[in-house]
Amino acid sequence: MTKQLRSRGGNMDPGHALASLGVEGAAAAAHALSLPAEAYGNDAQLEVLWAMKAFSHAEVYFNLISSVDPKFLKLTKADDLIYTKFREEFPDLNIQILDPELLKSTEAKEKWRPFCNHFEGIVEDFNYGTLLRLDCQKDYTEENTIFATRIQFFAIEIARNREGYNDVVHGAGAETKQRQNQS
C-alpha cells in the first residue's frame, strides 16, 4: 500500500517524514495535531501532517484486515452502537463499492451530519479526517480513496467487517503469507 500511494507522486512516507523532523520536531507535530482545528488557518505544513497521520492510519488498518479475520475485529468500544445506528440510518447504503456522492454531496452531508454528531463524546476524535477505500476489495490507491470523517470510516468498516465484505482482503493477505512461508 505504501508503495502504491507513493508511486502516485506523493512523498507520504510517514516514517521518513517524521524522522526528518527529529525528536523535538516530532513532539511539536504531535502537540500541534492535538489542538482544535479552530487554532489554525490554512497551514500547508499542518495539512501535510494530517495527511501523514491519515495515511499511517490507513496503512495500519489495511495490514490489520489483511492479517486478522475481519469478523473478529473490534475497532472501538462502541462497535455495536455504531453498527446498529449506521444500519438504522443507512440501511441500503452499498458499502462494497461506495459512491462518493453518497458521502460528499450537499444532501449526503445533511444526512450524515446528525449521524456523525451522535457520536461526539462517545467515539474519540469522531470528526477527524481519515482515508476510506471506495471499493473494499481493493487497496488504498489514489483512485480508490476518499477523505471521510473518522466516524464514517468506523461505521462503514465495521459494517464491511461484520457483513463479510472485507473477507476478500483478508483472504488475499492469508494467501500472500502462505506463499511467503512456502518460500
From TrEMBL:
Pfam family for this entry, one:
PBDC1
Q: Which GO terms describe its cellular component?
A: cytoplasm
**Which InterPro entries is this protein grouped with?**
PBDC1-like_dom_sf, PBDC1_metazoa/fungi, Polysacc_synth_dom
Q: What is this protein called?
A: Polysaccharide biosynthesis domain-containing protein
Q: What Gene3D superfamilies does this protein's entry cite? A: yst0336 like domain
What positions does the domain Polysaccharide biosynthesis occupy? 46-170
Note the superkingdom of the native organism.
Eukaryota
